[in-house]
């Protein structure tokens, strides 16, 4: 961001700072104690021309929003190239994730692919093996679909107890955007599937050559070969110029920088579906091919990075999602599960998408134990962490969809705790 373009005055910063640090205020529209300089003083932006059009040919957020950004946890991984950062869920609203804030998970860094040189190949058990350029793909009938993507490792650090302080870190390996592309079925129909064709293996053009086995049924059902997100080209971080969209299934299968799909008659047992992305159970055996992301939810506000600042009227906000079906209901408790209320689902409730929920509540300044519990249209109820551990043991990393608890103290600060 070029900060010479837009310089808020020093005074502007100070006023903002004091207002934000003003402690707990009771009413929603506080009565003025004296003259408010934000009203009585002429502000910089009132008295001079602002920047003209095209000062920022590609628009960026206001400098006052600088804190709204992806963040990583340095000690989590040995290198930046095989690492992850997290979506700032507590700073967002609605259900769409802005492109620049979608968490990143790379196994070999961000491939900078020249779309003119990018090729997408279908080979294996097809009547006609084919290679497509980006322009070829653009001429197929197109679809636009919203979907969430969740890394199977989201909340993985929390398996054995509360660890990271902030929903950005505990739940931020999820994003939800609108994808534009062509259905994988259209492409496969173009090539013609042999009767023995039962499995698909997408492969990435990055140095990790990410590959996974996907059953044909899923490939023909709702997978998309996508080149755009939220109306513009995919970001390099998200697989520009082409990625596979595998709705409701673990993020690892959504191969980025997609260059090839092999059609076969059995799974490939690739590294990422044997040594990784399997769930080690207590008896030493591992669950595998656990593709679907079960229903899950989290309260994003308040949360450790977003404390309560006001007594009285407040809005609790959060996100729920399920890889099986649309979200049906989200229950919220403020007292650790003694009483539950049904939240208000706001905005479209779309299949396999993030769903925004709200609860309007009065805070009397007493400590809270906040939880949310998602239920999807299949009737599946998000489990407690204890219930999950009873079934899956404590060795797992992936597929932790247990109920999250935030403890809000009297001063409004929140922390990650576990009560069940
Ligand atoms: N595809 C390639 N080619 N290389 C990768 O490292 N990471 C996978 C998947 N696809 C990966 C990939 C993992 S583990 C996840 S969770 C998602 O991409 C992350 O997608 P995002 O970076 O758009 O959030
Ligand atoms: Co992942």
What coarse outline follows from CA principal-axis ratios? globular
- How is the largest sheet built, in terms of strand order? 5-4-13-8-9
Tell me which ligands are bound: ligand MTE, cobalt (II) ion
- The helicity comes to 10-25%
Estimate what percentage of residues fall within beta strands: 25-35%
- Note the gap between the termini: 44 Å
Q: Spans with pLDDT under 50 lasting ≥5 residues? A: 1-22
Per DSSP, the total helix count is 8
- Structural class determined from secondary elements: alpha+beta
Explain the layout of strands and helices:
Layout: H1 10-20, H2 37-40, H3 44-47, E1 71-72, E2 83-86, E3 105-106, E4 120-124, E5 130-132, H4 134-138, E6 143-150, H5 167-171, E7 174-183, H6 184-191, E8 199-204, E9 214-215, H7 216-221, E10 224-229, E11 232-233, E12 243-245, E13 258-264, E14 279-280, E15 286-287, E16 296-301, E17 312-321, E18 327-333, E19 341-342, E20 344-346, E21 355-363, E22 368-376, H8 385-392, E23 405-408, E24 414-417
Parallel strand pairs: 4-13
Antiparallel strand pairs: 1-2, 2-3, 4-5, 6-7, 7-10, 8-9, 8-13, 10-11, 10-12, 14-15, 16-17, 17-21, 18-19, 18-22, 20-21, 22-23, 23-24
Bound molecules: ligand MTE and cobalt (II) ion (CO).
Cobalt (II) ion binds next to loops.
């Amino acid at each position: 961001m070029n900060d010479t373009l837009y310089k808020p005055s020093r005074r502007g910063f100070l006023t903002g700072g004091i207002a934000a640090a003003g402690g707990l205020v009771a009413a929603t529209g506080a009565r003025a104690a004296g003259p408010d300089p934000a009203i009585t003083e002429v502000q910089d932006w009132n008295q001079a021309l602002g920047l003209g059009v095209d000062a920022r040919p590609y628009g960026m957020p206001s400098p006052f929003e600088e804190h709204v950004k992806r963040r990583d946890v340095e000690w989590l991984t040995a290198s930046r190239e095989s690492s992850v950062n997290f979506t700032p869920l507590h700073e967002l609203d609605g259900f769409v994730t802005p492109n620049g804030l979608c968490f990143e998970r790379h196994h070999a860094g961000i491939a900078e692919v020249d779309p003119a040189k990018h090729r997408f190949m279908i080979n294996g058990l097809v009547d006609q093996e084919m290679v497509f350029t980006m322009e070829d793909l653009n001429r197929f009938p197109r679809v636009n679909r919203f979907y969430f993507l969740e890394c199977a490792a989201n909340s993985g650090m929390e398996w054995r107890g509360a660890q990271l302080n902030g929903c950005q870190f505990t739940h931020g390996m999820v994003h939800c955007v609108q994808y534009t592309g062509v259905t994988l079925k259209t492409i496969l129909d173009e090539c013609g599937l042999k009767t023995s064709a039962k499995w698909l293996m997408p492969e990435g053009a990055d140095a990790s050559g990410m590959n996974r086995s996907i059953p044909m049924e899923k490939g023909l059902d709702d997978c998309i070969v996508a080149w755009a997100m939220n109306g513009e080209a995919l970001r390099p971080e998200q697989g520009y110029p082409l990625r596979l969209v595998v709705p409701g299934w673990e993020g690892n299968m959504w191969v980025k920088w997609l260059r090839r799909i092999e059609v076969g008659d059995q799974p490939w047992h690739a590294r990422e579906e044997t040594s990784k992305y399997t769930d080690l159970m207590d008896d030493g055996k591992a669950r595998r091919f656990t593709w679907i992301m079960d229903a899950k939810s989290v309260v994003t506000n308040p949360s450790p990075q977003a404390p309560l600042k006001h007594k009285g009227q407040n809005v609790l906000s959060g996100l729920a999602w399920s890889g099986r079906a649309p979200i049906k209901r989200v229950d919220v408790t403020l007292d650790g599960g003694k009483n539950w209320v049904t939240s208000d689902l706001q905005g479209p409730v779309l299949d396999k998408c993030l769903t925004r929920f709200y609860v309007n509540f009065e805070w009397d300044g007493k400590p809270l134990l906040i939880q949310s519990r998602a239920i999807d249209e299949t009737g599946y109820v998000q489990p407690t962490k204890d219930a999950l551990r009873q079934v899956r043991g404590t060795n797992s990393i992936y597929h932790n969809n247990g109920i999250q608890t935030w403890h809000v103290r009297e001063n409004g600060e929140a922390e990650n705790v576990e009560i069940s």
